[in-house]
Design a protein that fits this description.
The chain is an alpha/beta fold and 340 residues long. It has ten helices and eight strands. The protein has an eight-stranded mixed beta sheet, sandwiched between helices. Helix 9 links the parallel strand 7 and strand 8. Helix 5 packs across helix 6. The radius of gyration is 18 Å and the shape is globular.
Length: 340
Protein backbone atom coordinates (compact mmCIF):
# COMPACT_ATOMS: atom_id res chain seq x y z
CA UNK A 1 0.00 0.00 0.00
CA UNK A 2 2.91 2.37 0.65
CA UNK A 3 4.00 2.11 -2.98
CA UNK A 4 0.50 2.93 -4.21
CA UNK A 5 0.17 5.80 -1.75
CA UNK A 6 3.42 7.36 -2.90
CA UNK A 7 2.71 6.92 -6.60
CA UNK A 8 -0.79 8.38 -6.38
CA UNK A 9 0.33 11.33 -4.29
CA UNK A 10 3.17 11.93 -6.73
CA UNK A 11 0.72 11.80 -9.63
CA UNK A 12 -1.60 14.28 -7.96
CA UNK A 13 1.19 16.68 -7.07
CA UNK A 14 2.71 16.30 -10.56
CA UNK A 15 -0.49 17.79 -11.95
CA UNK A 16 -0.21 20.75 -9.59
CA UNK A 17 1.32 24.07 -10.48
CA UNK A 18 3.86 25.69 -8.19
CA UNK A 19 1.65 28.76 -8.34
CA UNK A 20 -0.76 28.84 -5.45
CA UNK A 21 -4.23 30.05 -6.45
CA UNK A 22 -5.70 32.34 -3.84
CA UNK A 23 -9.35 31.85 -3.01
CA UNK A 24 -11.64 34.69 -4.05
CA UNK A 25 -12.54 35.10 -0.40
CA UNK A 26 -8.92 35.58 0.68
CA UNK A 27 -6.40 33.24 2.28
CA UNK A 28 -8.17 30.18 3.64
CA UNK A 29 -6.13 28.11 6.13
CA UNK A 30 -5.77 24.37 5.72
CA UNK A 31 -8.14 22.86 8.30
CA UNK A 32 -6.70 20.81 11.16
CA UNK A 33 -9.97 18.88 11.32
CA UNK A 34 -8.97 16.48 8.51
CA UNK A 35 -6.38 13.72 8.18
CA UNK A 36 -2.70 14.49 7.49
CA UNK A 37 -3.09 12.86 4.08
CA UNK A 38 -5.97 15.12 3.13
CA UNK A 39 -4.12 18.17 4.42
CA UNK A 40 -1.40 17.48 1.84
CA UNK A 41 -3.98 17.55 -0.92
CA UNK A 42 -5.68 20.67 0.42
CA UNK A 43 -2.40 22.57 0.73
CA UNK A 44 -1.26 21.70 -2.81
CA UNK A 45 -1.40 24.34 -5.50
CA UNK A 46 -3.98 24.50 -8.24
CA UNK A 47 -3.38 22.27 -11.27
CA UNK A 48 -1.52 24.03 -14.03
CA UNK A 49 -3.89 22.53 -16.61
CA UNK A 50 -7.11 23.96 -15.15
CA UNK A 51 -7.10 26.95 -17.49
CA UNK A 52 -6.44 24.89 -20.61
CA UNK A 53 -8.63 25.79 -23.60
CA UNK A 54 -8.22 23.21 -26.39
CA UNK A 55 -9.12 24.80 -29.71
CA UNK A 56 -9.39 21.76 -31.96
CA UNK A 57 -9.52 17.96 -31.99
CA UNK A 58 -5.74 17.59 -31.96
CA UNK A 59 -5.34 19.82 -28.90
CA UNK A 60 -8.06 17.82 -27.14
CA UNK A 61 -6.28 14.58 -28.08
CA UNK A 62 -3.00 15.79 -26.56
CA UNK A 63 -4.76 17.02 -23.41
CA UNK A 64 -6.62 13.72 -22.93
CA UNK A 65 -3.57 11.58 -23.65
CA UNK A 66 -1.46 13.34 -21.02
CA UNK A 67 -3.97 12.42 -18.34
CA UNK A 68 -4.47 8.89 -19.62
CA UNK A 69 -0.74 8.17 -19.74
CA UNK A 70 -0.21 9.45 -16.20
CA UNK A 71 -3.08 7.40 -14.81
CA UNK A 72 -2.20 4.21 -16.66
CA UNK A 73 1.33 4.39 -15.23
CA UNK A 74 0.07 3.84 -11.68
CA UNK A 75 -2.77 1.37 -12.33
CA UNK A 76 -0.73 -1.88 -12.37
CA UNK A 77 0.58 -1.21 -8.86
CA UNK A 78 -2.88 -0.14 -7.71
CA UNK A 79 -4.51 -3.33 -9.01
CA UNK A 80 -1.87 -5.45 -7.32
CA UNK A 81 -2.08 -3.68 -3.99
CA UNK A 82 -5.89 -3.60 -3.98
CA UNK A 83 -6.16 -7.25 -4.95
CA UNK A 84 -8.36 -6.99 -8.04
CA UNK A 85 -8.30 -8.30 -11.59
CA UNK A 86 -9.38 -6.22 -14.58
CA UNK A 87 -10.51 -7.81 -17.83
CA UNK A 88 -11.69 -6.18 -21.05
CA UNK A 89 -15.03 -7.37 -22.39
CA UNK A 90 -18.03 -5.98 -24.30
CA UNK A 91 -21.67 -5.51 -23.35
CA UNK A 92 -24.39 -4.26 -25.64
CA UNK A 93 -21.77 -3.52 -28.27
CA UNK A 94 -19.87 -1.24 -25.85
CA UNK A 95 -16.36 -2.03 -24.57
CA UNK A 96 -16.32 -2.48 -20.79
CA UNK A 97 -13.86 -3.37 -18.08
CA UNK A 98 -14.87 -5.98 -15.51
CA UNK A 99 -13.15 -5.35 -12.18
CA UNK A 100 -13.31 -8.28 -9.76
CA UNK A 101 -11.93 -8.52 -6.22
CA UNK A 102 -9.85 -11.63 -5.67
CA UNK A 103 -11.77 -12.23 -2.44
CA UNK A 104 -15.39 -11.60 -3.39
CA UNK A 105 -17.66 -11.84 -0.32
CA UNK A 106 -20.18 -14.65 -0.71
CA UNK A 107 -23.05 -12.28 0.07
CA UNK A 108 -22.13 -10.16 -2.96
CA UNK A 109 -21.99 -12.99 -5.48
CA UNK A 110 -24.65 -12.22 -8.06
CA UNK A 111 -24.68 -8.53 -7.16
CA UNK A 112 -23.14 -6.10 -9.64
CA UNK A 113 -22.14 -2.44 -9.53
CA UNK A 114 -22.14 -0.41 -12.73
CA UNK A 115 -19.60 2.43 -12.60
CA UNK A 116 -19.27 5.47 -14.85
CA UNK A 117 -15.89 7.18 -14.68
CA UNK A 118 -15.47 10.93 -14.39
CA UNK A 119 -13.52 13.32 -16.58
CA UNK A 120 -15.88 15.91 -18.03
CA UNK A 121 -17.02 13.64 -20.89
CA UNK A 122 -13.52 14.04 -22.36
CA UNK A 123 -11.01 12.40 -19.96
CA UNK A 124 -10.48 8.77 -18.93
CA UNK A 125 -10.52 6.69 -22.11
CA UNK A 126 -9.88 2.97 -21.96
CA UNK A 127 -8.19 1.49 -18.93
CA UNK A 128 -7.26 4.95 -17.60
CA UNK A 129 -10.87 5.33 -16.45
CA UNK A 130 -10.85 2.27 -14.16
CA UNK A 131 -9.37 3.95 -11.06
CA UNK A 132 -12.62 4.41 -9.09
CA UNK A 133 -13.89 0.99 -10.15
CA UNK A 134 -10.72 -0.62 -8.77
CA UNK A 135 -11.12 1.08 -5.40
CA UNK A 136 -14.83 0.23 -5.18
CA UNK A 137 -14.31 -3.42 -6.10
CA UNK A 138 -11.60 -3.79 -3.46
CA UNK A 139 -12.97 -1.66 -0.63
CA UNK A 140 -16.68 -2.42 -1.10
CA UNK A 141 -16.31 -6.04 -2.18
CA UNK A 142 -18.32 -6.10 -5.41
CA UNK A 143 -17.84 -7.03 -9.04
CA UNK A 144 -17.78 -3.71 -10.90
CA UNK A 145 -18.48 -3.09 -14.57
CA UNK A 146 -17.06 0.11 -16.07
CA UNK A 147 -18.14 1.04 -19.59
CA UNK A 148 -15.53 2.66 -21.81
CA UNK A 149 -18.18 5.02 -23.16
CA UNK A 150 -17.58 7.27 -26.16
CA UNK A 151 -16.54 10.82 -25.39
CA UNK A 152 -16.37 14.30 -26.85
CA UNK A 153 -15.19 16.02 -28.90
CA UNK A 154 -15.26 13.16 -31.41
CA UNK A 155 -18.45 11.72 -29.94
CA UNK A 156 -20.59 14.45 -28.33
CA UNK A 157 -23.99 14.05 -26.67
CA UNK A 158 -25.82 11.69 -26.69
CA UNK A 159 -23.05 9.16 -27.40
CA UNK A 160 -21.96 8.68 -23.76
CA UNK A 161 -25.53 8.28 -22.53
CA UNK A 162 -26.41 5.96 -25.41
CA UNK A 163 -23.50 3.72 -24.44
CA UNK A 164 -24.51 3.81 -20.79
CA UNK A 165 -28.05 2.77 -21.69
CA UNK A 166 -26.82 0.00 -24.02
CA UNK A 167 -24.65 -1.48 -21.27
CA UNK A 168 -27.45 -1.22 -18.71
CA UNK A 169 -29.94 -2.94 -21.02
CA UNK A 170 -27.42 -5.74 -21.65
CA UNK A 171 -26.81 -6.10 -17.91
CA UNK A 172 -30.54 -6.46 -17.27
CA UNK A 173 -30.54 -9.55 -19.49
CA UNK A 174 -28.23 -11.37 -17.06
CA UNK A 175 -28.83 -9.69 -13.70
CA UNK A 176 -32.10 -8.79 -11.96
CA UNK A 177 -32.44 -5.05 -11.42
CA UNK A 178 -32.73 -5.54 -7.67
CA UNK A 179 -29.16 -6.87 -7.67
CA UNK A 180 -27.73 -3.89 -9.57
CA UNK A 181 -26.25 -0.70 -8.15
CA UNK A 182 -25.04 2.23 -10.26
CA UNK A 183 -22.46 4.81 -9.20
CA UNK A 184 -19.88 7.29 -10.39
CA UNK A 185 -18.03 10.45 -9.49
CA UNK A 186 -18.25 13.88 -11.14
CA UNK A 187 -19.26 13.25 -14.75
CA UNK A 188 -19.86 9.67 -13.68
CA UNK A 189 -22.27 10.93 -11.04
CA UNK A 190 -24.10 13.02 -13.61
CA UNK A 191 -24.27 10.03 -15.96
CA UNK A 192 -25.64 7.87 -13.15
CA UNK A 193 -28.50 10.33 -12.65
CA UNK A 194 -29.08 10.77 -16.39
CA UNK A 195 -29.19 6.99 -16.87
CA UNK A 196 -32.08 6.75 -14.43
CA UNK A 197 -33.95 9.46 -16.34
CA UNK A 198 -33.28 7.50 -19.55
CA UNK A 199 -34.34 4.21 -17.98
CA UNK A 200 -37.56 5.80 -16.74
CA UNK A 201 -38.28 7.18 -20.22
CA UNK A 202 -37.78 3.71 -21.71
CA UNK A 203 -39.77 1.95 -18.95
CA UNK A 204 -36.75 -0.15 -18.00
CA UNK A 205 -36.51 -1.69 -14.52
CA UNK A 206 -34.55 0.66 -12.28
CA UNK A 207 -31.50 -0.44 -10.30
CA UNK A 208 -31.88 -1.11 -6.60
CA UNK A 209 -29.81 1.94 -5.60
CA UNK A 210 -27.52 4.59 -7.05
CA UNK A 211 -24.67 6.74 -5.74
CA UNK A 212 -23.71 10.04 -7.36
CA UNK A 213 -20.43 11.40 -6.02
CA UNK A 214 -20.12 15.17 -6.52
CA UNK A 215 -22.21 14.85 -9.69
CA UNK A 216 -21.94 17.17 -12.67
CA UNK A 217 -25.70 17.57 -12.41
CA UNK A 218 -25.75 20.97 -14.12
CA UNK A 219 -23.50 21.67 -17.12
CA UNK A 220 -24.15 25.40 -16.82
CA UNK A 221 -22.45 27.68 -14.31
CA UNK A 222 -25.48 27.69 -12.05
CA UNK A 223 -25.33 27.31 -8.27
CA UNK A 224 -23.66 29.10 -5.39
CA UNK A 225 -20.50 27.00 -5.13
CA UNK A 226 -19.53 27.66 -8.75
CA UNK A 227 -18.77 31.15 -7.38
CA UNK A 228 -18.02 30.74 -3.67
CA UNK A 229 -15.61 27.83 -4.22
CA UNK A 230 -14.06 29.20 -7.38
CA UNK A 231 -10.25 29.11 -6.93
CA UNK A 232 -10.78 27.48 -3.53
CA UNK A 233 -11.36 24.09 -5.11
CA UNK A 234 -7.82 23.10 -6.06
CA UNK A 235 -8.92 20.31 -8.41
CA UNK A 236 -11.43 21.86 -10.81
CA UNK A 237 -10.61 25.45 -9.77
CA UNK A 238 -13.13 27.23 -12.02
CA UNK A 239 -15.80 26.60 -14.64
CA UNK A 240 -13.96 29.11 -16.82
CA UNK A 241 -11.13 26.69 -17.64
CA UNK A 242 -11.15 23.31 -19.40
CA UNK A 243 -14.34 22.35 -17.57
CA UNK A 244 -16.47 24.91 -19.38
CA UNK A 245 -14.83 23.93 -22.67
CA UNK A 246 -15.71 20.29 -22.01
CA UNK A 247 -19.34 21.25 -21.35
CA UNK A 248 -19.48 22.99 -24.72
CA UNK A 249 -17.96 20.19 -26.79
CA UNK A 250 -20.10 17.54 -25.11
CA UNK A 251 -23.39 19.48 -25.39
CA UNK A 252 -22.51 20.22 -29.04
CA UNK A 253 -25.21 22.87 -29.48
CA UNK A 254 -27.90 21.13 -27.44
CA UNK A 255 -29.56 23.02 -24.60
CA UNK A 256 -27.22 22.38 -21.65
CA UNK A 257 -30.23 22.46 -19.34
CA UNK A 258 -31.77 19.47 -21.09
CA UNK A 259 -32.26 17.01 -18.20
CA UNK A 260 -30.34 14.31 -20.07
CA UNK A 261 -27.35 16.68 -19.97
CA UNK A 262 -28.11 18.35 -16.63
CA UNK A 263 -30.25 15.91 -14.63
CA UNK A 264 -30.96 18.40 -11.85
CA UNK A 265 -33.65 19.76 -14.19
CA UNK A 266 -35.31 16.37 -14.69
CA UNK A 267 -38.30 14.62 -13.16
CA UNK A 268 -36.71 12.55 -10.40
CA UNK A 269 -39.90 11.05 -9.00
CA UNK A 270 -39.57 7.31 -8.55
CA UNK A 271 -35.76 7.38 -8.43
CA UNK A 272 -34.13 4.54 -6.48
CA UNK A 273 -32.49 5.29 -3.11
CA UNK A 274 -29.58 7.65 -3.74
CA UNK A 275 -26.36 8.48 -1.93
CA UNK A 276 -24.71 11.81 -2.77
CA UNK A 277 -21.24 12.91 -1.70
CA UNK A 278 -19.33 16.20 -1.87
CA UNK A 279 -16.90 18.38 0.09
CA UNK A 280 -17.00 21.85 1.61
CA UNK A 281 -14.49 23.23 -0.96
CA UNK A 282 -15.98 21.38 -3.92
CA UNK A 283 -16.86 23.45 -6.99
CA UNK A 284 -19.74 20.99 -7.46
CA UNK A 285 -21.07 21.28 -3.90
CA UNK A 286 -24.13 23.16 -5.15
CA UNK A 287 -24.70 20.59 -7.89
CA UNK A 288 -24.75 17.96 -5.16
CA UNK A 289 -26.94 19.72 -2.60
CA UNK A 290 -29.40 20.95 -5.23
CA UNK A 291 -29.78 17.38 -6.45
CA UNK A 292 -30.22 16.15 -2.89
CA UNK A 293 -33.00 18.63 -2.14
CA UNK A 294 -34.74 17.83 -5.43
CA UNK A 295 -34.69 14.12 -4.69
CA UNK A 296 -35.97 14.64 -1.13
CA UNK A 297 -38.76 16.87 -2.39
CA UNK A 298 -39.77 14.10 -4.80
CA UNK A 299 -40.02 11.62 -1.94
CA UNK A 300 -36.84 9.74 -2.83
CA UNK A 301 -34.78 8.16 -0.06
CA UNK A 302 -31.68 10.33 -0.57
CA UNK A 303 -28.68 10.68 1.74
CA UNK A 304 -25.93 13.30 1.60
CA UNK A 305 -22.35 13.17 2.88
CA UNK A 306 -20.25 16.36 2.79
CA UNK A 307 -16.61 15.92 3.72
CA UNK A 308 -14.71 18.60 5.62
CA UNK A 309 -12.22 20.65 3.60
CA UNK A 310 -12.42 18.60 0.42
CA UNK A 311 -12.15 19.91 -3.08
CA UNK A 312 -13.68 18.02 -5.98
CA UNK A 313 -13.54 14.20 -5.64
CA UNK A 314 -10.66 14.22 -3.16
CA UNK A 315 -12.48 11.50 -1.21
CA UNK A 316 -10.84 8.93 -3.48
CA UNK A 317 -7.48 10.40 -4.48
CA UNK A 318 -5.41 8.56 -1.86
CA UNK A 319 -6.45 4.91 -1.26
CA UNK A 320 -5.32 4.73 2.36
CA UNK A 321 -6.48 8.16 3.54
CA UNK A 322 -9.07 7.83 6.34
CA UNK A 323 -11.54 9.87 4.31
CA UNK A 324 -11.18 7.50 1.36
CA UNK A 325 -11.69 4.44 3.54
CA UNK A 326 -14.75 6.08 5.10
CA UNK A 327 -16.19 7.03 1.72
CA UNK A 328 -16.00 3.51 0.31
CA UNK A 329 -17.12 1.98 3.59
CA UNK A 330 -20.25 4.13 3.44
CA UNK A 331 -20.70 3.31 -0.25
CA UNK A 332 -20.46 -0.41 0.47
CA UNK A 333 -22.90 -0.18 3.38
CA UNK A 334 -25.32 1.78 1.24
CA UNK A 335 -25.40 -0.79 -1.54
CA UNK A 336 -25.53 -3.66 0.96
CA UNK A 337 -28.68 -2.09 2.45
CA UNK A 338 -30.59 -1.95 -0.82
CA UNK A 339 -29.28 -4.64 -3.16
CA UNK A 340 -31.05 -7.99 -2.87
Amino acid sequence: MKMVKKSLLALFLFCMSTVQVQAATGDIPVPDTVSPQLRKLISAGAPSHWNTHPKNAEEWRIFVKSFADSMESILPALREQMGVTVTAEAMGGVPVFLVTPKNLPEENMGRVLLNFHGGGYVLGPGESGTYEAILAAALCGYCVIMPDYRMAPKFPYPAALDDAADVYRALLKTTPSEKIGVFGTSTGGGMTLALILRAKAEDLPLPAAIAAGTPWADLTKTGDSYFTNEHLDNVLVSYEGWLGEAAKVYADGHDPKDPMLSPVYGDVSGFPPTLLTSGTRDLFLSNTVRMHIKLRQAGVDADLIVFEGMSHAQYMMLPDAPETILHFKELGKFFKKYLK
